[in-house]
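Exercise 7. Predict the joint structure of the components listed below.
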Amino acid sequence: MLTKKSQYAFKALGYLADKQKDGPVLISEISKKKRIPLKFLENILLELRKAGILESKKGKGGGYFFKKDPADVKMATVIRLIDGPISMLPCVSLYFYERCKNCDEKHCGLHDVMRQVRDVTLEVLESRTLADLKD
Amino acid sequence: MLTKKSQYAFKALGYLADKQKDGPVLISEISKKKRIPLKFLENILLELRKAGILESKKGKGGGYFFKKDPADVKMATVIRLIDGPISMLPCVSLYFYERCKNCDEKHCGLHDVMRQVRDVTLEVLESRTLADLKD
DNA sequence: CTATTAGTCTACTCGATTAGTAGGTTTATA
DNA sequence: TATAAACCTACTAATCGAGTAGACTAATAG
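Solution:
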């Protein structure tokens, strides 16, 4: 399951993708329109900015807006950033790999199945982008 | 990510699938061979028995063994039993569905992507069975 | 140059979940 | 009747998820 945090992130990013032409959008506006707790949203947007996906401007007329083109940001990237691993096991994770103890990866049935799950999952999440969140 | 609990469950089930011809297997044997904390394993096997996957026998010569044919138990079933939902969002879950607030499922980009992820994931997990865990 | 607006940052809380452990009870077999 | 083994309830400690508090910094308008 995705955490609330990444679900909020996706909602906020979808909103920002819609308003992309309108210049900076206030955190408080996103918070109201998407019903996301204000302070929680602050943290989330900050993370997205630090990751280089969003950009912000302080003071009057400020707010958040896209730094990258939404079409260039994969869903998988956002999930990994906010929630961490996408795979069901550490030993099949590409970005958060950990060797599994007492299970030989060469002939571990579970490993094989979970690698297959990872592959089909990533096929979707690496091809879909934040542009797909626009309505 | 799968929990330790379901990972242990799969290891134990794999072991039991191998030993299927040998009659009842002791919890303590599985615990040793697969390096799973004994008391934790007890709980797990109990759940699997109550779910009708395993059967047990008490007293001398007792232990755990398969009630169903391993080839008839889908991986998805075990995950749902031990960990719960497989989907990334409650609103696309088949067995643990919950309507999502402030997001119209008719035109929600996130919903669509996550439904697609669910579909490809289940294609794997509903087709692979515990027989695939044998080595 | 100062008031206001708006994002930045650190740290805290609090409940739920995860990963176990303890210890007694029941049932089958020898 | 002794012993072997599973059964069952309840407890604990650590981590994580979800959110809050409050002070700080930077940009703009008058």
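Discussion. Chain A has five helices and two strands.
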